[in-house]
Write a structure and sequence with these properties.
Length: 52
């Protein structure tokens, strides 16, 4: 990420890289985060279908 007091340029959509984590650590955190979000969505869908 580049910062000059007026402009922020995100680094390819990886918030962990934007926060200063180096690769490959930032990529690992992004993948893990995406997996956790997908898991939460799947569980919510199962719970919604069970409630029907």
């Amino acid at each position: 990420m580049t910062c000059d007091n007026t402009t922020l340029i995100p680094s390819g959509g990886n918030v962990f890289a934007d926060l200063g984590f180096a690769e490959p650590e930032a990529g690992i955190y992004k993948t893990r985060s995406e997996a956790m979000i997908a898991n939460e969505k799947m569980l919510a869908e199962i719970q919604a279908s069970d409630a029907s």
